[in-house]
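Forwarding these from the shared drive since the link keeps breaking.
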Amino acid sequence: MPRAGLRNSLVEQPRSVEEPSAVKLSRKRTRKVLHPIATDTDIVQEDSCISSTSLIDSICASPARRARLLNPQLSAAKVALHSHTTRQICGREEERRLMREFCSQKLSKSSDENGTINNPCLYIYGAPGTGKTAVVTSVTTTFAEEDRLKVIFLNCMSMDLVRDVLQHLLEQLNCKTKITTKNMWTLSMSYVKKNSLPVLLILDEVDELLSSSDMENVYKLLEWPHQTSNLLMIGIANSLDLTDRLLPRLQLKPEHKPYLLRFSPYNREEMLSIVNDRLGSIELFDRNALMLCASKIASTTGDLRTVFDVCRQSMELTTDSPAKMNVGVSHMMEVFTNNSQNTNSSDHIQTKSLPTFEKLLLCSLIVCLRASKKRVCTRAKLLMIFHDLCTKYKLPAADGFEFEGLIDALEAHGLVKIIPSKNKIKQDDQIHGKVEENVLIDALQDETLLGMVLHN
């Protein structure tokens, strides 16, 4: 009898691969072999390579996989509406123009006196989900691909001190010398100055550096672009008054104040335009449903990522057959109703309705964060811990595709946040909990198995 699988359903058993008779493989393994982490492209390719008839008829095919096979548009829509899809977001034309002008400062032999921006430091601010990082990445990637700038991107959430920033900077500039507290600034200034291309340093979540006790070096870092001719710096954060409230020293030297660029929240029309651009020819959503979604979020936060999450959740609620799925207004309203009950309290965290394996993945995340001094957990490490827990408690292990589906589901429920890795390798993406750890523990430890996992 097949064992129970993910999401309280049966999973497809691994297909055997026939090997040539001349080749005999040893059954002994020196170490555990984990399934690779799947990408969205892998999922689409997997669906196109497997015979759909055999899987649809098989009792081992999971409901999610059957739905993807019966309606390829469903899989395409989930990929297109993922907030981390590396696809350019339309709109923000004025912001793009200013950023292109900023990046072009160091490319002209003589300074452009007619330009709006003549400042080597740019600070971009705005509410979460307003496209700051996505637009910056889109514009600067073009300069990097054309070999006009050496672009170095850093997410400061993974940085404790300015020394960490300088160390990564030197690694990107191929510095082989060991960095120490005494030589970090000398090396950094030297390598930036002699680099053949102007260096563009992008600091995402730059306000995270202000929580350290290293404020003297923080000021020195932000003033650095004004002291060299080969460096540009872009800081990105949510704080509207970062430079005035948290960095008063910059006010003493007006020439060191960065150029400020605000990203205002998206309105309904802009959100609809972006969603329709992402969906393209995919016809799964009723037009009124999308308008409802965009209107409600535009009237509150203007967070584009929330629009994507609500659309993805609403696809899971439709009871139509996968072959003729249509997401309507009622599905959108159900998502908003469920999310309004999800507050940061153990009494309201909706974990009881989650499938067992999603709960176990949350426990794995807590275990992973406890074991890390920096409170950081990557996809690869989370998969390893999740696989070990499944083995320890004799549960069917998830392959790479099912594991990715579990993470996406937790993100859609607002329980985790995914931060793409700076080296663009998906296994190195950071997974953060969006709910306080003690709240999650209170909500999860009521069940016997999960309580054993957390306490052991």
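-- next protein --
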Amino acid sequence: MGCVHGKCCIRYPSSSSSSDGDSGRHGEMKPFNNRHILTQRSLESVPVPSHKFTLQYSVLTQHGYYPDTVDRENQDSFCIKTQIQGNPDVHFFGVFDGHGQFGAECSNFVKDRLVEILSSDSTLLDDPLNAYTSAFLATNTELHDSEIDDTMSGTTAITVLVVGDALYVANVGDSRAVIAVKDGDQILAENLSQDQTPFRKDEYDRVKLCGARVLSVDQVEGLKDPNIQNWGDEESQGGDPPRLWVPNGMYPGTAFTRSVGDSTAEKIGVIAVPEISFVRLTPNHLFFVVASDGVFEFLPSQTVVDMAAAYTDPRDACAAIAGESYKLWLEHENRTDDITIIIVQIKGLSKSGAGALDSGVDYRPMIMRSIKGSLDASTVSESETYASVRSDLSDKQQSCQHSVSTNRSSAFIVPSPMPQRPLQLDEG
């Protein structure tokens, strides 16, 4: 969910159905154009020598089907960079979902510059939280200053930085990262990020304080009462979600509350400050998934983990999930979004090599506060955390960012979503 072309207020006329890619299970759907289907299917691996385990990964990106703009570019991009700063224990995985007329340019710009800025930051390993936030804000500023017109275009960014046996997950927008956790005879999906949309009360309150009108398209068009500011939940109301509009205009209509770029939406509270979560890996962490909302629009996190766990080869898992996502898009709409997914398997991490508890299910928060632009991190435990890291913003953005927290303390903690239907492990 996001902005223009499936991510904004644009309505789509009816059209004939299209394909699901090269997934053989859905043979009744014929591919529109094979050159768009299921690319980037290599299998790679990289060691993490400090903790004696290996990351084995694959990435797949699939062009969406848009009947009215069949030659439209794939606006998704991805970045995988191993051995950041020449360190064999530091690796980066990111997915960037562009939107708007220049969405492809925005996502490609951000996927290049974000990791470059991170890699050049000498404080990265000493203070990864501040380095991550600074990199997002610097990339956002550079995109504004570039030749790319980002007034009504931008990108989401979901990224995972592996530092030894630790994961730092930085999210801006509504793409998602999920980790698979073995819990007895089950494999549970634990979200490493939370979608930043007006469905979230904290994000709704923040953008309202920045002057945004929050209305669904039906409300804007007079089909529903605009005074009813209750849209249910994203699972049931995703077809006509609440969107952000300037006070006296019919734009930009973004269904997200954070992004990189989107300089017009930035004036009403759409910011590039990432929410950062932290995970200390244990042997119970099996793999993690980083994907655009083309995957998660119709597939819950638990279903994605179930499907990924059914394959030993992440290439096959990526293909199966992309194929199912494509099929579900065409069952619900006459188009599909671009689909990008990275699956990273955690192989060989032993109890002696891990630096945390045996179970990955006990999640307690690390509280991070910003005091005059600096971070004061108070660690409650070395398990999964969700926190919004505050950084230097413009006066208006800073006011919008902080005013919501006055009744909640300066720390913003997002609770771990409840796991959905678990996958049963075979005995033995």
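Confidence is low (pLDDT under 50) at residues 1-6, 8-40, 356-396, 402-428. The longest strand covers residues 53-62.

- D.
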